[in-house]
Structures are given as structure tokens and as C-alpha cells.
């Protein structure tokens, strides 16, 4: 299986930002030009970009279609992107704007039957299901939704297996407790998931600090890793991660 490095750009109010553990009150701003940041990643050798519309993740209504089209046309990047996908029209809009894959998070938790229908209709290669998870006091991996601001009754284990049985190919999983914290990815979580759903292409996200973390995700069996804060703060060079 090919291992893919996804540099990530999270956009809020038109700026490149990062949130700590999904908290909109704990934002760090890294620049005002997402296209320039993405172009720099392309020049470093990236083939893919992970693009998140944080405004839409919270309120719905994807706002980055113009940027998405420019990323494809001007930077030559394949883009997986999400935030605010609430219905089939949103999915089609993103695919038509140039998304290689559409990331579906909250809706994939709230209405799995609907999203599974889209996987069959549009193809398993065009949708990435994002199951962002938080471990509760009982040790259960829960699935917060709406930009991680609301609780869900579904569990990670059950829903991951349900999607695997429905033909899902690409699963992105973020340990919310590690997102933006530079504590290292939760490799135990990914090994656990791959034990449950060994056929899925699993993307690791949250906490990656350095090359050892990139290697760790690959050796744990993940098909890819999403790199955010470590790249933006210069702790990790994209060229080295790609070579890894």
C-alpha cells in the first residue's frame, strides 16, 4: 500500500489557522494566504493537500470552492477537503470544483446510511470518512460532531466496522486530545482500528511532531499521515517527510 503524506491547511475567515483540540477559542493564525501556503507545499514535492473549512465545519455551507479550484489549477495539487458537507448537493459541488476526495465528518456520524449510499453512488475513492474521536472516562472512543462541539451516541469501533462493511476505502481518524498539541500520534489507537478494519486505508491525524512520528504511523499500518502544525511551525520539513 502506498503511504501518502498530506500537508494540511485549515482555513478560518480566509486565514491559515490551527485550533488546539478543536477549540475555536484557542486559535493560532499562521498567515493570510492559503493558496501561497499550498503552493509552497507543492513546490516542496507534495502531491496531495488536506484542506479544511473551519467556518463551514461549525456552521455548514462550504466556503472554499474558489480556493479549491485554484489549488487544482494553479498548484497542481490533488485535494481532499471537507467542512460543512450537509447534503448531496454539497458533495457534488466539491467534486465539481475539483476535489479528488470529499471529507465527510459530522454527517458520516449522524447519518451513516446516507453517506454509505454516496459511497456506492460516487465510488469509494471519492469520499474520505473522518471519524474524529475522544476517549471518555470509561475508555470508550466517542465521536463528537459539529466541529467537535456536540456529543454523539455512536462509538468509533461500531461505526468504523459499519463503514468497512459498506465498502468504505478511506478513513481519517483524529484523536482530538492530540490535535494541535504536538504530543505524537496515537499509534495504539491506529493499531486498534486496523485490527478491527484491516482492509481500510487509514489516515493518521493529530499530534505529529517529527520524522519519527511519520515513520511510526507508517509502521503501524496507516496508509497516510496528515501534517499540520509541525509543518507550519517549522518543526518538520515537508521534503523530509515525503522522503520518509
Automatic annotation (TrEMBL):
GO-annotated cellular components: cytoplasm
Name of a matching Pfam family: His_biosynth
Lipid metabolism found in the keyword field: no
EC primary class: isomerase
Main location: cytoplasm
Catalysis: reaction(s): 1-(5-phospho-beta-D-ribosyl)-5-[(5-phospho-beta-D-ribosylamino)methylideneamino]imidazole-4-carboxamide = 5-[(5-phospho-1-deoxy-D-ribulos-1-ylimino)methylamino]-1-(5-phospho-beta-D-ribosyl)imidazole-4-carboxamide
EC number: 5.3.1.16
Keyword Zinc (UniProt): no
Domain of life: Bacteria
Gene Ontology biological-process annotations: L-histidine biosynthetic process; L-tryptophan biosynthetic process
Keyword set, alphabetical order: Amino-acid biosynthesis, Cytoplasm, Histidine biosynthesis, Isomerase
Enzyme active site: 10, 132
Cellular compartments annotated: Cytoplasm
Pathway participation: Amino-acid biosynthesis; L-histidine biosynthesis; L-histidine from 5-phospho-alpha-D-ribose 1-diphosphate: step 4/9
Alphabetized HAMAP family for the sequence: HisA
Family per similarity comment: Belongs to the HisA/HisF family.
Name this polypeptide is given: 1-(5-phosphoribosyl)-5-[(5-phosphoribosylamino)methylideneamino] imidazole-4-carboxamide isomerase
Protein species of origin: Alkalisalibacterium limincola
Gene: hisA
Amino acid at each position: 500500500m502506498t503511504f501518502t503524506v498530506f500537508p494540511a491547511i485549515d482555513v478560518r475567515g480566509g486565514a491559515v489557522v490551527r485550533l488546539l483540540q478543536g477549540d475555536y477559542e484557542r486559535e493560532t493564525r499562521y498567515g493570510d494566504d492559503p493558496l501561497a501556503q499550498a503552493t509552497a507545499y507543492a513546490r516542496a514535492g507534495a502531491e496531495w493537500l488536506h484542506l479544511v473549512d473551519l467556518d463551514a465545519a461549525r456552521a455548514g455551507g462550504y466556503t472554499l470552492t474558489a480556493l479549491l479550484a485554484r489549488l487544482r489549477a494553479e498548484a497542481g495539487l490533488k485535494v481532499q477537503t471537507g467542512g460543512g458537507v450537509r447534503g448531496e448537493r454539497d458533495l457534488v459541488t466539491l467534486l465539481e470544483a475539483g476535489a479528488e476526495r470529499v471529507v465527510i465528518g459530522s454527517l458520516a456520524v449522524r447519518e451513516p446510511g446516507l453517506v454509505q449510499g454516496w459511497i456506492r453512488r460516487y465510488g469509494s475513492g471519492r469520499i474520505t470518512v473522518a471519524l474524529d474521536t475522544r476517549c471518555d472516562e470509561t475508555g470508550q472512543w466517542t465521536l463528537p460532531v459539529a466541529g467537535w462541539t456536540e456529543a454523539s451516541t455512536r462509538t468509533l469501533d461500531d461505526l468504523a466496522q459499519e463503514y468497512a462493511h459498506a465498502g468504505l476505502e478511506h478513513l481519517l481518524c483524529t484523536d482530538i486530545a492530540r490535535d494541535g498539541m504536538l504530543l505524537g500520534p496515537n499509534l495504539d489507537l491506529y493499531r486498534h482500528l486496523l485490527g478491527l478494519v484491516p482492509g481500510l486505508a487509514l489516515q493518521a491525524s493529530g499530534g505529529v511532531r517529527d520524522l519519527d512520528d511519520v515513520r511510526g504511523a507508517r509502521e503501524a499500518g496507516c496508509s497516510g499521515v496528515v501534517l499540520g502544525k509541525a509543518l507550519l511551525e517549522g518543526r518538520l520539513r515537508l521534503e523530509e517527510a515525503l522522503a520518509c
